[in-house]
């Protein structure tokens, strides 16, 4: 294990600002013409270059079907960077970056294209000093993973006998159930060793998610109450105000639960509920997350433990919007959910008896991702006329307006013993002069540095599917039809019933 991997990022102020510099390397993008690459990945690479975190020898290769020359691709990258980069565009930085940009034209099953890629990487090693260090980023549909991985192996691009490294980056989804996830993991790890596989969950690169570990383990005031003795329940929410748009081809048949709960929200659950790791070493972090996921238990009666919905047409933000069935290419009989909420428990000493409610949806009230730990009600012996004052809560805002809110009761000025909920708020933008890096900046840099703590291994992926699969199987077996909900609302009525049955209610984000 290298020294950089053993560092505790929460005790190293340099790491918070991503002031680590990757060594010589080349990054190959498959799926470079897609929206993710254009809006997120390519701008993130430029931002790393602009901040001096990639060396002058760094090189980038696009692989795709387009009939582009290197210059054509450079122009496409420049347009993407100018439109979407987080940092200021600088001509001198661009000129340095552009000299290492190449494009290889071909299909995923084109043998000659992989020979051309091999020759291109050899040329970069000779002319730019990449030292044979290559990362392959698969921003492609899951059905193409096996094809590309086997081609990389067949053409000698996945392995290296000298001290250089080869790594692969895989975007979610990691399968569509436990069985397919195991098959995919088997295929990936036949080609690349486990420690060279980086499964991207961009939520884990967000500053607030990482700060959750600092909040829990660097502050004595929180740890004593972070357990079932004080916490009544936990709510984890990811809401989006927009519909599926042009993603019908991907989204129909996948749905909100597979798209978000299986990965993003269960990862947030694991980080919220895990015990303190021995260190921030990747194996120690993963061990604690896996313990939590393995300890997740489902309610005995699944029929009372979920809610699913589909958004209807209507008005949102003063504009008329399509319903789910108005979106292009959605079948009239689709049972794909655009909203999903589930209830689970965690069978550990710390969390026994505390329900965790996870929800996600499209066309909801606003864009927000948050983790809310809601405390048990105070006995209120002195304030028995204030039953409606609510419960204390710690709310971690993952996005937007990254930060944290603590909700507590305070006396209202005046002569009566009236109490009211108030908020104490912490926001990154108000408290730090440093600007938070974009999640993909952090994750791409970690790939090039070979630092894996923020990337889930196949054990975590499989454990997450074990949690979600019973819900999916129940919905399929009973032909569950999602309940309609209005755009701009917070989901179907059944989602409110899910908590009301337990005498609880959703927070209004």
UniProtKB/TrEMBL annotation:
Domain Glucose-6-phosphate dehydrogenase C-terminal: start-end pairs: 213-507
Any GO BP: pentose-phosphate shunt, oxidative branch
Molecular function GO terms recorded: glucose-6-phosphate dehydrogenase activity; NADP binding
InterPro entries recorded: G6P_DH, G6P_DH_AS, G6P_DH_C, G6P_DH_NAD-bd, NAD(P)-bd_dom_sf
Any one of the GO CC terms: cytosol
Residues binding NADP(+), per UniProt: 65, 172
Domain Glucose-6-phosphate dehydrogenase NAD-binding as annotated: residue spans: 28-211
Broad EC category: oxidoreductase
Family designation: Belongs to the glucose-6-phosphate dehydrogenase family.
HAMAP family, A to Z: G6PD
Name of the protein in question: Glucose-6-phosphate 1-dehydrogenase
The encoding gene: zwf
